[in-house]
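Model: Ready when you are.
Researcher: Fold this.
Model:
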Amino acid sequence: MSTSEFDGYKVDHLFLLIGENPLPNYVAAKMLLEEGGKPYLVFSERTEKPAERLKEELGLSDNEMVPLNNNEANSYEIKKRIREKIKEIQREIISKYPDKNQFGLNYTGGTKAMAAHAYQALLILDDNDSKIQLNPPPSFSYLDSSSLKMLVEQKGNPIPIDVNLKEKLSLKNVFDLHEPWSQKQPPIENPKLPELAKEIAALHTDVNVARAWRWWCDYVLRRKARNSQKPSEWLKEDCLKNITIPLQANIADINLTEYLVTLMNSVNKDDSVSEIIQNILHIFKDNEFKKIREMSQLSNSLWSSSNTQYIEKIVGLIQSSLGLSGAELSLADASQKGQFKKIKHLCKWLDGEWLEHHVLQEIKNISSPDNFISDSKMSFHIQDDKGNDKFEFDVAFIHNYQLFAISCTTDTEPELCKLKLFEAYRRTRQMGGDEARVALVCCYEKPEKIKKGFMAQIQDENVNVFGCGELAKLSESLKIWIQKVDK
């Protein structure tokens, strides 16, 4: 249906039933209102917060709010309050502008009781014998999440209309309707070192490379650049600027030797052999024998002769891309040449965020007006009232009015990958509703196994998993997925 044909279905006064997800209401307001028209938000105590967020996003006043309080199933109160608002509009607006007299109801949100009684409220203004009807008759509509179309009633026959907003929906619109992102850490719009990320992704199509590089990040990069007292945090910038990371393939042996030397220096050399052994065992016991496991992992490390080739390939890419040389990586130099604002940003990039940057660039490669991808970003930080992170989104984009979210992990363990997918699914559905779509990009070689495990618990055919085998041609795989769920 053309824009001019659709104009006949627009209204001047649109009542919106507010549910827990205000995104469909926002779409309806942007799509169904005539220029200068007003939406009126009908909400209960349970949906007051979504209504307030929608009010702010649409720039409304208290006059456009129709509170039901705790009467969301009370037929008398629902009809009474909507009819009172209609009569107020007739007195204050239509009396001055007689041609602004088209009413409408979009019942996508709210409860079934609210929809039924609101429908009756617009059909008949009074329940007494005089029974006044609106002229022209009101328009009724519903945003269908299965067909992704706006269904507009026309003489009892719903007409499906493609959702095509004049003002393209942005990620900020969607997040502001739910959980605004951090202003101190806004999402990233332009990927960092996308060409290098693409080359690293191409190497990660071999799961052996993925496992080897994950080991390097865990046992080399993190050991040098993270806070030993708070292992989840990177060191402060003044410490990171003095750190160099060994790049030679025998780093496991070097680390093991360094640790054993430190251990031997901690005991008294004048003690007998048996006393020295007992002291060492006490040291291990104090750490709940974690050090023994770490030493075993180091001595039997992935960076053995059989895996050296994999890590050296990535190290070579990093050195050539950033113009580095030598057997050690200066974090300060690499950060400067990579144009990172902070050294810890480089550390995060090497530690796995390169995959998010690669995914974002692949999305931008296929973004065009033809496929309705209007906005794409990565690294969303959602904070609580105290400024602490509640959760994060890895990569997200808007396709038409749908939220697409992609969780990214360089992990090769299927259970960890599946947990990431479940968490992303839960968060994305909270933000984008039934229309939202979710995918996982990981380095596991059998993505169909992860999807099968997910589908055993949640039946959603639109969810997808992309494994290491698809990293080199990810843009094509993403394009096929988007086209599939768009049908």
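Researcher: Now this one.
Model:
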Amino acid sequence: MLAVARVRDDVRITIIEDGGAVAGFFPHQRSPLGFGRPVGGNLTDYHGLISRRDLVIDPLELLRASRLVSWEFSHLPIEQASLASCRSASSRSPVIRLGGGWERYCDWLRGTGTQILKKQEYYRRRMEREIGAVSISHGGCDPAALDSLFRWKSEQYLRSGLVDVFAFPWTRELLRGLMDCRSRTFRGVLSELRAGGRLVAAHFGIGTQEAWHWWFPAYDIAFAKYSPGMVLLIDAVETACDEGVGLIDLGRGEAEYKARLSNDSIPICLGEVRVPSIRIRARDGLSRGKDRIRRSPLYALARRPLQWAGKLERRSRFH
């Protein structure tokens, strides 16, 4: 939250009081028109209230007090019942629980029938034979490695037709700032896989003493045949066990590796809290107009403009 506030000027925090005492906080980003989003927007994999578990609030009163007409959420823990009552869909965020240690996790993986551990060991040995000595580190602070990650991830977004998250200066500055965080309770975690002295894959996430969050993995596609991203992740899981970390959160998503490696998940939900207003009605009217065009004979003519409008809307979420 504070890291995002250092690189953006629209971060706000509503303080919630109960009986004169502070009971919680509602961090958010607010647009000039009063539309709210989670701090960090689409970058954040969890958001909502920071409060005691038994806090019950009226979502509409919270928004009015925050001077918001709406607040969208896509990764809200479903246990936050007050806000989750406004959900439109539910999902789950896959996690790797490591309470039993590395060997017990490996036994669980083998029990699922996967050959992933054998395959990653094979790829690691193959890299050593064909490229050079393999080294992996977690928790470094090499700016050049982070820049390589930005470049690889941008290329991946463009290949996939997605918005390039790192085309916006504030996102890169956010991760650079997080990489410098080295407190006992919170830190940026930069992981690097090198073969023959060359950076082949990298990942940037955040971590505490209890949990790591797998956030932005990327690799040089010239080395895709060695599955370097998976080699790096498997090593990160083993390292986390060695450091006493009990959980690695892989984040919501349909990537195959998340389904193969996760042994549990955290229920989350998507939706929007809305305060009735002219601004909400105008936005809804615009959305209904777009839907009618899509279903009409005019769509063939309007398809390209609508696609551009959608792309601009998705990009606007990062401005």
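Researcher: Key takeaway?
Model: The chain is about 40% helix and 30% strand.
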